[in-house]
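Sharing a chain and its predicted structure for anyone who wants a worked example. Both blocks are below, sequence first, tokens second.
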Amino acid sequence: MAEPAPVVNPYAYDNSAVEAPPATLGGALRRVGPGLVLTASIVGSGELIATTKLGAEVGYVLLWAVIISCLIKVVIQGEIGRYTIATGETALQFMNHMPGRIFGLSWPIWLWTIAGVLVMFAVGGMYGGVAQTLNLIMPAIGVDIWVGVLLLITLAVLLTGSYVQIEFVATLLVAIFTVLTVVTAAMLLLHPEYFSWSSVR
């Protein structure tokens, strides 16, 4: 009877697997794929729907909160990434070192678990939001049908098991989102009746 294959921890720190940093711009650009996949997974209904709805309700009064939250997010994610690279520990392993244990685990782990469960429900809301948008573009197709179509597309991408395809889709989405954001901001500046710096306070 053959022995079972050893379990490999993909997050375990292996010094021999560490590559030298790229020395050229082209080499650096060839390594941005995983970062773009992470970016595409982070940008969601909060950025596309919640902040837009908040802006429609209160105007630019809370613009400072959006800017501060973006800055905090960048700093925290950057430092966690550096910690993981330096130690080989994941974010959850790092949080589990914090004092205050509940049933053998540090309290941030339990908060993370609760947040993960809530995200499951949020994903359903994201599908519904995208389906409603597509229904406004093509009213002949119902929201329920659009949700089914979106699920099939998601399954098709994931079941192929090809990271290259996921990276391509993520890069495309991030590029489109970035371009549309810049274009929208530029167009807004051309219409002073909708925007003025005096409104930002």
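Comments welcome. Residues 36-195 form one domain.
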